[in-house]
Design brief:
Layout lengths: L6 E6 L9 H18 L3 E4 L13 H11 L4 E8 L5 H14 L4 E6 L4 H6 L7 H16 L4 E4 L4 E5 L13 E5 L4 H9 L2 E4 L5 H5 L1 H14 L9 E5 L1 E3 L3 H8 L3 H11 L10 H10 L4 E3 L1 H15 L4 E5 L6 H20 L3 H12 L1 H29 L1
Length: 390
């Protein structure tokens, strides 16, 4: 993987404890994306959630529109749009508008909806969400490609539906399908020729299923005449990095237990181990679910994911608020400074140049010495000529 440019980004649900100012929390999410843009991160994915109190961005499209105005380079994705919650024409229209407003920097992450409580409030059966996701993708891809679509099903109707704008990104905006342990996301990505977004890549089930899910995606792609592209495969992993492991553990005393409570008592997702703070840190790190350590620990996790998966295109940090804001920013900075270069090959030419200069140092030193001596001799001769002339 070090021979190719691995992309880096963040998957921002976000996770905000209920004891802090929500207005300020959303603004800090925006500050984070701007900080990532400055540090050279490639991507930021923004979630959609409607219940539970923690994941408080309801419209990733609104957030992306604002973030696009404050950033220059970073690509911005919906992470993810819950397809059963939206009429496909309305959602496609918003994404197409963003494709133009961002000049092609938007990405379209899609999924069935992660929180059963969201579906419950809308009267949507959880058992139907994955089928509805696949049905929606079937019309979203042609709509976003500029085609006219007619389709009628249990939950939406399209009658000669088309978007008013042609795609800014050809043939259409990049689309990725969310996947955890279930094969539904991998099947949908392969069937429609889309990217794969493995949200639970470091959970025990998700990690064990990485290679199998990719194979499902690749097989489905072949079946439907597509070619699966590993560069469009993104893995999500939680990390907090500090200068030392001890400092990282000290940092996460700030907010780790609140995050654990959310996943233990509220969200219907199996991410949090039981136990006290020390026990949770040990469980998270020893299982490989999370990294709480230094840049070398982050590097080891990436190498572990590469070996298990067989190769992928982007590592997305599962954003959290385990540490105080300044220390969280420092974690992103340390990853940008000391982890990203190891997997993007950015220092390879520098290292080669340094090695070449070091191996030839005696030659260069000799040449420099000869040049200095020649100048000294030249100066002495000029002074002798001046003395003779006087």
């Amino acid at each position: 993987m070090s021979e190719t440019r691995l992309r880096f980004g963040a998957f921002i649900a976000p996770f905000h404890p209920v004891d802090e100012n929500p207005t300020r929390a959303i603004e800090r999410d925006m500050e984070l994306v701007c900080w990532m843009d400055e540090l050279g991160y490639d991507e930021a994915w923004i979630g959609e959630h409607h219940s539970g109190g923690y994941e408080i961005i309801a419209s990733p499209e609104l957030f992306i529109a604002a973030a696009a105005e404050r950033t220059r380079h970073i690509r911005l994705g919906t992470g993810v749009s819950s397809l059963p919650y939206h009429h496909p024409l309305m959602l496609a229209d918003r994404i197409m508008q963003l494709d133009h407003m961002t000049r092609g920097r938007v990405m379209f992450g899609v999924g069935p909806g992660a929180l059963p409580s969201d579906a419950f409030m809308m009267g949507i059966e959880v058992a139907k969400q994955r089928d509805r996701m696949d049905e929606a993708i079937g019309v979203l891809v042609p709509l976003l490609s500029g085609e006219t679509v007619s389709h009628e099903c249990e939950w939406f109707t399209l009658s000669e539906a088309r978007l008013q704008l042609r795609p800014y990104t050809e043939p259409h905006v990049e689309i990725c399908v969310a996947s955890q342990v279930s094969p539904s996301g991998a099947r949908a990505a392969g069937k429609h020729g889309l990217g794969l977004l493995s949200i639970g890549a470091t959970t025990t089930g998700g990690f064990n299923a990485l290679a199998a899910n990719w194979q499902i995606c690749a097989d489905k792609a072949t079946e439907y005449g597509h070619e699966a592209d590993r560069s469009q495969w993104r893995l999500v992993a939680p990390m907090h990095i500090a200068e030392t492991r001890e400092q990282a553990i000290e940092d996460v005393r700030f907010g780790l237990e609140k995050w654990l409570y959310y996943f233990q008592e509220v969200a219907a997702l199996p991410l949090a181990p039981a136990g006290d703070f020390e026990g949770a840190v040990e469980a998270l790190t020893s299982s490989g679910l999370a990294v709480i350590g230094d840049p070398d620990d982050a590097t080891a996790q990436l190498e572990r994911l590469e070996q298990q998966s067989g190769g992928f295109g982007a590592l997305l940090l599962m954003d959290h608020n385990w540490a105080p804001w300044a220390r969280k920013k420092r974690s992103y900075e340390l990853i940008a400074n000391y982890v990203m270069p190891r997997f993007q090959g950015t220092n390879a030419p520098r290292e080669s140049s340094m090695k070449w200069a070091a191996s030839n140092r005696p030659t260069f030193m000799g040449a420099m010495g000869n040049a200095i001596n020649a100048e000294i001799q030249k100066h002495v001769a000029e002074q002798q000529e001046k003395t003779k002339g006087s």
